[in-house]
Design a protein that fits this description.
The chain is of the alpha+beta class and 308 residues long. Helix content is 24%, strand content 26%. α2 packs antiparallel against α4. The longest helix is centred in the last third of the chain and has 19 residues. The termini are close together. It binds flavin-adenine dinucleotide (FAD).
């Protein structure tokens, strides 16, 4: 979500005081976003905060709107590419306990947007609730997963959503039930708000069977992802009926490298960043692979990773 406003210049430039000083919220300036992304890349956010509760979040969101300061939320940072120039605005991370709760309410579960997806899946499995276990290998938070309708061959998170609580750009909070929610392949209509929490509808099943299914998915998922390094990102969405990985291989693009960014050859839909890599390298690599697939196979791949 981006608050109204068009400030392209750094709103923190040259000022000692910040526009948030009277809000009772700890706001840091010039926060390196490389500390918050899986690729470990990107410049600074002018302002950064981790509000302690919904009321503190509301104050920050309202202030951003009043002052025309752009605002973004970062979850686990596993699907964002931050440019070297950083982000001229406020970045909010919902990492405080108030946003990371997981509460079993059979036959469902309520999870905060900042909760790690893997923790939510484990809690559901332990409680004998099925429906989320196929997401065990997806990195990131509930909020990020809902916004991008994360998932895979075995299903997407949106299929299990009953209600989402969100904050709008004016700081108001509302509940959206299924009639107001839309989930499609790696897309949802939650792009106009901040996700605060979600209620999932799940099925009761034997925890022992579920644990086995989750472990199997974990092993399969791990085999499909590059291991051993966090400096990776998924490049493209899978087109209908095929995978981005198979198209990249067919197009002969698995050896593509730009500067410090390269295609991870054994898992060709991932980019790996080495120590010299920049955000521009990753961006250029994604574009080059896309062009190679288009030229060789006539298929237009859609990037998965979101450029800020
Ligand atoms: C190794 C690896 C494997 C992956 N495997 C899969 C996979 O199998 N399936 C799949 O779908 N994806 C996969 N991904 C992509 C990524 O993990 C998912 O898109 C994930 O759901 C992103 O969650 P996040 O919390 O990291 O979001 P971020 O990357 O932090 O953010 C993604 C977007 O969501 C927004 N956002 C985050 N939280 C909120 C919130 N509370 N309110 C409003 N907006 C918010 C951000 O502003 C941004 O626009 C993979 C990525 C990696 C690196």
């Amino acid at each position: 979500m981006a608050a109204a406003g068009k400030s392209a210049a750094d709103p923190a430039a040259g000022a000692d005081a910040t526009p948030f000083d009277d809000l009772g919220v700890a706001v840091s300036r010039r926060e390196p976003l490389s500390h918050h992304t899986w690729l470990g890349l990107g410049g600074e956010a002018s302002f950064f905060c981790e509000p302690v509760d919904v009321e503190a979040l509301r104050r920050v969101v309202s202030r951003c709107r009043e002052r025309g300061i752009p605002l973004r939320v970062i979850g686990g940072g596993s699907n964002v590419l931050v440019p070297k120039a950083g982000f001229a605005g406020m970045v909010v991370r919902l990492s405080a306990p108030a946003f990371c709760g997981i509460e079993v309410r059979k036959p469902g579960l309520v999870a905060g947007a900042g909760a790690k997806l893997v923790h939510v899946v484990s809690a559901a499995v332990q409680a004998g609730l099925s429906g989320l276990e196929t997401l065990v290998d997806v990195p990131g938070t509930v909020g990020g997963a809902l916004v991008g309708n994360a998932g895979g061959h075995a299903g997407d998170i949106g299929e299990r959503v009953r209600e989402v609580t969100v904050m709008l750009v004016d700081g108001s909070v509302e509940n959206r039930d299924q009639s107001r929610l839309a989930f499609e392949a790696r897309w949802s209509n939650l792009d106009d708000c901040i996700v605060i929490s979600c209620r999932f509808d799940l099925d009761e099943e034997s925890p022992a069977l579920l644990t086995k299914r989750m472990q199997k998915q974990w092993i399969v998922g791990r085999a499909e992802q590059p291991g051993g390094t966090r400096a990776v990102a998924m490049m493209f969405k899978d087109p209908l009926g095929t995978t981005a990985e198979s198209l990249i291989v067919q197009a002969g693009a698995r050896d593509t490298r730009v500067g410090g960014a390269s295609v991870h050859a054994p898992h060709a839909n991932y980019v790996v960043a080495d120590a010299t890599c920049t955000s521009d390298d990753v961006r250029a690599l994604v574009e080059r692979v896309r062009t190679r697939v288009r030229d060789a196979l006539g298929v237009e791949l859609t990037p998965q990773i979101e450029v800020w």
